[in-house]
Specification:
The protein is an alpha+beta fold and 473 residues long. The chain has three domains: 270 residues, Aspartate Aminotransferase, domain 2, CATH 3.40.640; 95 residues, Alpha-Beta Complex (Aspartate Aminotransferase, domain 1), CATH 3.90.1150; 74 residues, Molybdopterin biosynthesis moea protein, domain 2, CATH 3.90.105. Helix content is 36%, strand content 14%. The strands form five sheets. An eight-stranded mixed beta sheet has the order 1-9-8-7-6-2-3-14, sandwiched between helices. It has a four-stranded antiparallel beta sheet with strand order 10-11-13-12, covered by helices on one side. Strand 6, helix 7 and strand 7 form a beta-alpha-beta unit. The chain binds pyridoxal-5'-phosphate. The site of pyridoxal-5'-phosphate has 14 residues, from helix 4. The site of pyridoxal-5'-phosphate (PLP) has 14 residues, from helix 4.
């Protein structure tokens, strides 16, 4: 197939040229009605923001340009079928779970999954069996579950309807998922993978291999995270001996808008073509740019640039702030030059390099120089031991989702909630992985970690302070 073609974008381009008359939604009428001060930004995109007019196809029952664009994506990503998503990987994760599990079904899930996976479990009413990730001392964080934990969970719960894994983790670390998938498949259980951070893995070496090529049944990728697609644009790929396509399609049309955005869909068409047309030379240039960025950051006296291993995605650059300096000093130095990282934790920063050579070396060098000039030794920052956050390799919630629905709850200060069952999740954002999960008994380590993160200024997604706990009986 001709991967340089972009059938959906080209169709919209042609349609825009017609300067048609709109007696239909959306209300901006091809961009003619809009507030003037904003229109210079929106004008061009609004011309593509059409609706399901004759000939423009329909995401929920594609037979024309959308179908062709999805087929090109399936060809490039090597899937049996690829769905375009306009609700982000969030929609894909929800749909893949709903397609595989029903109320009361067991499902084996990595405990450090994104909240969209946890929400999928709750919506389906399934019974999650959590598998704990390993704590990697070298990088100071939880990564993936061990092979032994996965296999022992599947042996113990061979009636599970799916296993849900995240690959790579937020920081780009991968693991031997192929071996896990092969063992899980022995039990005739489908493997669903949240690969939100791995859309560019399809480029091949030197990037890690996509789980889609390693036997996963369903793989969800955020095109907008590392490929040049608009926010909310994602792919859901299916490569499975299980019959999952129709069910996934059914839930996607239920969970996503009945008026999916054409600019988002066109950006998925463009992102796939962008990936598919990268040459070896392009990739070389990207990698050499990554090393230059790493070298400049390495000049910052307050930082250690985490070395890359064969398991890491090169686009992700993890910085450890040295113990005698504060994260805040580094962030302020970067922000002075309008440089913003993807994520900041209490001791780390995560930067994502794009899929093209970096173009802002001068501000980056200036920022590093400024940080070095101003760097002051702070008090040694208190760190806490989070390695016992997930003490049991295999665990379950204290209540089923059905039981939770029957209960009332009270809002209390976090420390007062210790030993009670959480009626809401506590989620630092980013990365969006619940520290305390709705339905879990709140432990001392969890409360201590949340309090520590709050003190360090980490954002927790919450509408009210404290935590909701279930009232007993
Ligand atoms: C691991 C993981 N899965 C899923 C998502 C949700 O992706 P999206 O923003 O495309 O809905 C995220 C978002 O940060 C993520 O980090």
């Amino acid at each position: 197939m001709d991967q340089s073609s972009t059938p959906l974008f080209s169709l919209l381009d042609k349609f825009a040229m017609k300067h048609s008359t709109s007696f239909h939604v959306p209300g901006h009428k091809n961009g003619e009605i809009f507030l003037e001060f904003a229109s210079s930004y929106f004008q061009q995109v609004l011309k593509l923001d059409v609706t399901e007019l004759p000939g423009l196809d329909d995401l929920h029952a594609p037979t024309g340009a959308i179908q062709e664009a999805e087929q090109l994506a399936a060809d490039f990503f090597k899937s049996n079928h690829t769905f375009f998503l306009v609700g982000g990987s969030t929609a894909g994760n929800l749909a893949m779970i709903m397609a595989c599990v029903q109320s009361g079904d067991k499902v084996i899930v990595q405990r450090n999954s994104h909240k969209s996976i946890m929400h999928g479990l709750e919506l389906s009413g399934a019974k999650p069996i959590f598998i704990a990730p390993e704590f990697d001392k070298e990088v100071g964080r939880f990564t993936s579950p061990s092979y032994e934990t996965v296999v022992s969970a599947v042996q113990k719960h061979s009636d599970a309807k799916a296993v849900i894994l995240t690959y790579p983790d937020y920081f780009g670390r991968t693991y031997d998922i192929k071996r896990m998938i092969e063992s899980i498949h022995h039990y005739h259980i489908p493997v669903l993978v949240d690969e939100a951070h791995g859309v560019h893995f399809s480029l091949g070496d030197p990037f890690p291999t996509s789980s889609l090529q390693l036997g996963a049944d369903i793989v969800v990728q955020s095109a907008h995270k590392t490929a040049p697609a608009m926010t909310q644009s994602s792919y859901l790929h299916i490569n499975s001996a299980f019959n999952l396509k129709d069910k996934v399609a059914y839930y996607l049309q239920m969970l996503q808008s009945s008026s999916p955005s054409y600019p988002l869909m066109a950006s998925l068409d463009i992102a796939r073509s962008y990936l598919a047309t990268r040459t070896d030379k392009d990739i070389e240039k990207i990698i050499s740019s990554v090393f230059k960025v790493r070298e400049i950051l390495g000049r910052c006296e307050g930082l250690d640039v985490l070395p890359l291993t064969g398991k890491d995605d090169m686009l992700k650059i993890t910085l450890h702030v040295k113990p005698s300096y504060s994260v805040q000093q580094i962030i302020l130095g970067l922000e002075e030059f309008h440089i913003y990282p993807e994520l900041t934790t209490d001791r780390q920063l995560l930067l994502i390099h794009g899929l093209a050579p970096f173009e802002h070396f001068i501000p980056l060098e200036k920022a590093v120089k400024r940080i070095n000039e101003r760097l002051k030794k702070d008090i040694i920052h208190a760190t806490i031991d989070i390695s016992k956050l997930f003490p049991e390799p295999i665990s379950e919630l204290a209540l089923t989702y059905q039981q939770m629905n029957e209960l009332t709850y009270t809002n209390v200060a976090l420390d007062r909630g210790l030993g009670n069952i959480a009626a809401e999740s506590i989620i630092p954002y980013p990365p969006g992985i619940p520290l305390i999960l709705k339905g879990e008994k709140i432990t001392k380590t969890q409360a201590m970690t949340v309090n520590h993160l709050l003190k360090q200024g980490v954002t927790i997604q919450q509408r009210t302070k404290g935590i909701k706990i279930y009232n007993k009986g």
